[in-house]
Write a structure and sequence with these properties.
By secondary structure, this protein is of the alpha/beta class. The protein folds into two domains: about 170 residues, Rossmann fold (3-Layer(aba) Sandwich); about 170 residues, Glycogen Phosphorylase B (Rossmann fold). Helix content is about 45%, strand content about 15%. The strands form two sheets. The protein has a seven-stranded parallel β-sheet, sandwiched between helices. The protein has a five-stranded parallel β-sheet with strand order 9-8-10-11-12, with helices on both faces. The longest helix is centred in the N-terminal third of the chain and has 22 residues. About 0% of the residues have low confidence.
């Protein structure tokens, strides 16, 4: 039995790759599709995922996103129509939802981002099942087109899927030229081209003032790594920072890097949650309204939301000034929370097995 998994973003690659590996162990065949997109292209190689590349990312304009999706849907319709999967499974992929619906293929969707309203509205009404963290109320999804009986919740966050059994690869330190005996501070740029942030941010990143403050105050101590999402961000951030900052031009093994990180400052969602669950002191300066998942992590005292650059920079200096204590407290809180969580992969795979039992040859 063939299951089609469509991958659009780095987070989706990490989650759906884990789901795909578990399905294959159960006897399913898995077809991965993706699109041309800088970080996904790099991570597909890093993770060793064999995926069919269909179409490309539409960029930072609504017109570009619409055109790219239209072209991709047309291409996918031929590929998926020939493959004839029994099930389509994706994380909030409008392309997969539309193709599956058009070809009469049952579609399951995963989503932890109700703040991305256009994507939710384009995917949830076309799905037979919606998988989501229990911290997001069902009424939120119902307001976006879900039926109550369609919603399957899990007591956990998505990064649990790839973090619970992750073994850090120390090769990431040599790859980036980092010294494990000195503090490593990692910054993650915002999703500047996402539909829900268009017009609210620039290519440079809201984290740049914080980084410049840290470079001035800890130039000989802290090592700064900046993970940008787009080539435009890489260029803009490099031009705004001294050469001491490390701004990789390619995607890296984020979970391994975070495992050696002393402090994380994120303007996005997934990597901030990863850092929090790994026990890394984390500050969120996400430029939009706080998401439900972010509010949950704040309540659990696993992240601090500080959007004003001067205040964020001050807190960074405070954490570095008492790093041993901060790390000890954070790691214990993260350990307790991680141990209490369900793995979303288990929930999804169990539902697939119940509805579509694998056919062994």
């Amino acid at each position: 039995m063939l299951v089609w998994l469509d991958i659009l973003t780095p987070k989706q690659l990490l989650l759906l790759n884990e789901i795909g590996k578990h399905l294959e162990k159960k006897g399913y065949q898995v077809l991965y599709t993706t699109r041309q997109y800088r970080e996904v292209d790099d991570l597909v190689k890093l993770q060793g995922v064999k995926a069919v590349v269909v179409g490309e990312y539409g960029g930072g304009s609504l017109e570009g996103k619409l055109a790219a999706s239209a072209h991709r849907i047309e291409e996918l319709s031929h590929i998926i129509g020939s493959a004839k999967p029994a099930l389509s499974l994706a994380f909030a992929s409008p392309d997969a939802a539309r193709v599956a619906f058009g070809l009469g293929i049952p579609h399951y969707t995963i989503n932890d981002s109700p703040h991305s309203i256009p994507v939710a509205r384009l995917t949830i009404p076309l799905a037979e099942k919606l998988f989501a963290p229990v911290v997001i109320p069902k009424k939120t999804w119902i307001g976006l087109g879900a039926k109550r009986e369609q919603i399957i919740q899990y007591n956990g966050l998505d990064p649990v899927a790839w973090l619970r059994h992750h073994k850090p690869n120390p090769a990431i330190l040599n790859e980036l030229g980092l010294d494990s005996s000195r503090p490593i501070v990692v910054f993650r740029a915002e999703e500047a081209f996402a539909a829900y942030l268009i017009g609210k941010v620039t290519a440079q990143s809201v984290t740049v003032p914080i980084m410049n403050d840290l470079i001035r105050s800890h130039a000989n101590e802290a090592q700064i790594v900046v993970l940008a999402r787009y080539p435009e961000q890489v260029s803009a951030i490099r031009s705004a920072l001294p050469k001491e900052a490390i701004v990789p031009s390619k995607a890296v093994d984020g979970a391994s890097l975070l495992s050696f990180t002393s402090l994380f400052v994120g303007a996005g969602g997934t990597m901030t949650a990863e850092a929090a669950l790994l026990g890394v002191p984390a500050i969120s300066c996400y430029p939009g309204e706080p998401t439900i998942v972010e509010k949950y992590l704040v309540r659990e005292r696993l992240i601090q939301r500080i959007c004003e650059p001067k205040r964020a920079a001050k807190r960074v200096r405070q954490i570095l000034g008492d790093l041993s204590k901060e790390l000890t407290c954070q790691r214990e809180r993260a350990r307790l929370l991680m141990n209490s969580m369900e793995d979303p992969v288990d929930i999804v795979v169990r539902q697939v097995e119940d509805a579509f039992p694998p056919v062994f040859r």
